[in-house]
Amino acid sequence: MLEDNYTDVIAKAMRGLGLSPTMVARRANLLDQELWSFEQGEFSEDVARRVARVLQLKPDALAYFPQYEPKQSNLTGVKRLALPFGDGQVNAWLIRTDDAVILFDTGESPISCAASLDSIRSPKPDHLFITHAHGDHVGGIPSMVARGSALHGCQIKNALEMNPGDAVSCGSLTVRAHDLSGHATPALGYQIDGLSKPVLVSGDALFAGSIGGCSSPENYRKALRNLDRVLVCLPDGTVILPGHGPATTLGEERANNPFIS
Fold this sequence. Notes:
Blueprint lengths: L5 H12 L3 H7 L4 H8 L5 H10 L4 H6 L13 E8 L2 E10 L2 E5 L7 H8 L7 E3 L5 H4 L2 H6 L3 E4 L6 E2 L5 E4 L2 E7 L8 E6 L5 E5 L13 H15 L7 E4 L5 E2 H7 L5
Parallel strand pairs: 3-4, 4-5, 5-6, 10-11
Antiparallel strand pairs: 1-2, 2-3, 7-8, 8-9, 9-10, 11-12
Helix pairs in contact: 1-9, 2-3
């Protein structure tokens, strides 16, 4: 199941562009009631296309959104830890090879990530990489550091500092940091080379079908600009491991994510 539905997508775009529902309705040649019904879950492809043009989203992608579900990407050595977060879930991602065990993010709870690793009898992660400092991604850091994992991140307390462009060798894998600030600042995405396919751990910068919400139009522009700069260099087959929701591929997001060109 996707992290966001289409109403979340349009709400994030409206906030990011600083547009009120009345402004969107007028520019889309809709009655206020028509837009209100659409926002409340009464989906219409025609309304979706009109609204998408106003919100600078891809019309075909928004019109198709209720049917979109990325194909399962079963990449050997990659395990999703779907950890509790309020009424939903937040992801940590475990990557295991013959010569490395790496963890990305730790969930909100002090114990849920460690307990999840124990339940699958995972070895201790050699390295722990944090995408950003929001509470639902950093709560389990102390328990993982106590197990001896080396902590990496940008402006994360007690972490080995990583900045965009920095890389860490983890056995046969290389983990390279990219600037994905916008939803949070700073925020890093991690490109992993050495698996059978390229991988990008995107944190909350990119979800299947959506992006993380931004607190201001300035941060929204920053988020889209950074995503475009990072993604343009990656092939369609790149596996995306987001902070919430299922894994996807860059090719699927280019076709079906309303925010991604």
